[in-house]
Protein: UBR-type domain-containing protein
Organism: Phrynosoma platyrhinos
Amino acid sequence: MEKEAERTAGGDKENESEGGEQPADNNRSEDAGSEEGERGAEEPVVSLAEVLAESEELEKEARAVLGGSDHERCSYAQGAVKRQALYACSTCTPPGEEPAGICLACSYECHGTHKLFELYTKRNFRCDCGNSKFKNLQCKLLPEKATLNPANKYNDNFYGLYCVCKRPYPDPDDEIPDEMIQCIVCEDWFHGRHLGEVPPDSGDFHEMVCQGCMARCSFLWAYAPKLAVPTVTKVTPAAEDGVILNVEETEEVKKENGADSQMTTEEEKLVQNNEPSTSSGSECSKTVKNEASTCILEELQARQYLKKNSATFWPHNWRSKLCTCKECMKMYSDLEVQFLTDECDTVLAYENKGTSDQEADRRDPLMDTLSSMNRVQQVELICEYNDLKTELTDYLRRFADEGTVVKREDIQQFFEEFQSRKRRRTDRMQYYCS
C-alpha cells in the first residue's frame, strides 16, 4: 500500500493527483511528421488509452480512500468516526503548534487555499477544524465545537513526517525508491527498508505491525509462527540483535520458515477456534465474537516462538484467529488495541465499503436528464447522443489505426466540425404546419 503524498491547495475534490503527462512517440505518417514533431516539442502528449486508464485508476483510488467520507458535511457531529479520510493543515497548525486533524469536508470548505498533509485514513478520530488549536479560523460548516477532542491520537504524520527516520513524503533528499507501508496499530507510515525485515511482496500480505508496536503488543509474537507471512531476507545484520527465545533452553526451536512450521490438525483447530470472517473482504465480522471457551493465546505461548526486533506482516482474515477469551479481551483493552478483533476496522473493509457505496450512489447523468423530459425531447436527445457517439468513435478510430496520439487541438477540431455539420443539417430541415 503506497503512501498518498501531501495534497496542496487548489487540488481536485476527488484528490486525484496531477501526474505530469509523459511524452509519447510520434508515429504519424511522413506527410504530417514535420508539423506534428513541432507540435509535440511544444507540449507533452499522451495516448487516449493512457488517459482513460489513468483516469479510471485515479477514480478507483479516490472512491476507495474517500468513498467512506462525506465531502459536504463535517464529520464532527458523528463523534469519533470509526475510520475516515483525514488531513492536517500546515498553514493553520505548523510545527511548534499543537497537532490537529480535519475531515474531508473541512479540507475543502475551510482550508481550500491552505497547504495540507494527506493522512490517508485514521480510526476513532473527531474533526478538530475550528477548535482551540486553530488560532484564527472558525469552522464554516460547524462553528460550535468543543475546545478540544481529548480522545484523538496524534503523531508526527500531522506535521508531514513519517517513519522512524521522521522524514517527509515524498522526500526530496531521498534518492532510494521505497514503498511506504502503514502500521495497522500506530497508523504511522514506514519505509520498507526501516522495518527490520524485507517486506514480502505487497500482494502476499494484508496488514503490517511495525517494530515498536510489536514490542508493545508482544503477545502477537506467539501468533506469528502460525499466522504471519514469512519474510525471507533481513534488511541488515543488526536485525538479528535482541532476538529473544521464549522457550526453555533444552527445547529445540523450530525454524519459522521450515517444514515444521506447517500447522498440524490440532494447531489449526487452535487458531481457528473463533468464527472466521468472509474471505471476499467485502464484508466483515462483528466487532466482538463469541468468547472462546479456552485461551488460544495461552496455548500458543506454551509452544516455541521467537521475539525479533522487526515488523511483522499478516494475511487477510488473520484478526479472526485472535483469542477473544475474557482475559485476552482485557489485555487488548489495557493495551488500547481492542480494534484488532474487529475486521470492520481494516483499511480494506473501509475501502470496500467506500467503493460499494459510491457505486450504489452513482447515477447516469444522461438518464437523469432524460427523466426530466417529455417523450419528443427524449427521442431528440437520444438521436443527438447517438450521432455524437458514432461520429466521435469513427474519428478516434483513425488515431487508433495509425497508432497516433490525440491532442487537445484534435478534439477541438472535431467538435467544431460536428457543430458545423449539425447546423447545416438543421438549416436544410423543412417545417410544416397543419
Remarks:
- The chain has twelve helices and nine strands.
- Residues 1-32, 236-263, 273-282 have pLDDT under 50 and may be disordered.
